[in-house]
Amino acid sequence: MSEPAGPSDAVLDVLDDLRAEGGELDVLIGELSPAQWGTATAAPGWSIAHQVAHLAWTDTAALLAVTDPEAFAAEVEKASAAPDTFVDDGAEAGAVLPPAELLSWWRDSRVQLQDALRAAPAGARFPWYGPPMSTASMATGRLMETWAHGQDVFDALGRTRRPTDRLRHVARIGVRARDYAFAVRGLEAPAEEFRVELTAPDGEEVWAYGPEGAQQRVTGPALDFCLLVTQRLHRDDTAVRAEGPDADRWLGIAQAFAGPAGPGRPPRAASGTDPGTSGGAA
């Protein structure tokens, strides 16, 4: 009997991009002094150490979901018992570790997760805090979180990073999470599909989603859209535009992550945030 097929080339491409996204952030934080790990980020109460601890904690949770679904179910029960605090609690527990130990944890957890996802059979699905995830969805979700929390770290250090085509994964999950953003707020999602057209980082290619003739439309730079759906930037501080009342309402509540709706970041004019700094929710 033949062995189950592994991930497709398309899934392997996502995994390669996930590895590259983690590697880019690793280069930056690997150079930090112990004192810099305590630098505050735009997420209230979160330092750089909290951001990395959250990534390590979530990668570890994802690894458990992939390798031991029954054990992961127990973690979901813990999360359900404390829906408003379990994310912060996980970050806080990791943030108190010595920086070298925390960095080693994140490195190990993301490598082990990569290995587990690459070994997963075709068609595999894994439990998660939201709906079950395919290998591609799990990898895309981890890439989105790595990019978003990495943005907080880059911003906290006053560093600028060049946007890459890896943002297409973040944009896609943001578009696909449209109905979830309504549901998590107890709102009925619009019945009709939207057209979303995003200008890629090269300034030329357009990433398009949804029917071309849709009345409800969203347009703008892919980077701004990704910052918006990960709640790293208030919509007033983006060049993302909506045509139609439903599309406009979506941009006010969009989120690409599972779990309760976050408060988002205030407009820069209201918060006094430096214009070069992106905002965002933890």
Topology:
Layout: H1 9-29, H2 48-67, H3 69-81, H4 86-95, H5 99-119, E1 125-126, E2 133-134, H6 135-156, H7 167-176, H8 178-183, E3 195-199, E4 206-209, E5 217-221, H9 222-229, E6 241-243, H10 245-251, H11 268-271
Parallel strand pairs: 3-5
Antiparallel strand pairs: 1-2, 3-4, 5-6
Structural write-up:
- With 282 residues, the chain is α+β, with helices and mostly antiparallel strands.
- It has 2 domains: 9-156, Four Helix Bundle (Hemerythrin (Met), subunit A); 167-263, 2-Layer Sandwich (Nonspecific Lipid-transfer Protein, Chain A).
- The protein is 50% helix and 7% strand.
- The chain contains 11 helices and 6 strands.
- It has helices spanning 9-29, 48-67, 69-81, 86-95, 99-119, 135-156, 167-176, 178-183, 222-229, 245-251, 268-271; strands at residues 125-126, 133-134, 195-199, 206-209, 217-221, 241-243.
- The chain has a 4-stranded mixed sheet. The chain has a two-stranded antiparallel ribbon with strand order 1-2.
- Helix 2 packs parallel to helix 5 and helix 2 packs antiparallel against helix 6 (135-156).
- The longest helix has 22 residues, at 135-156.
- It is globular and about 50 Å long.
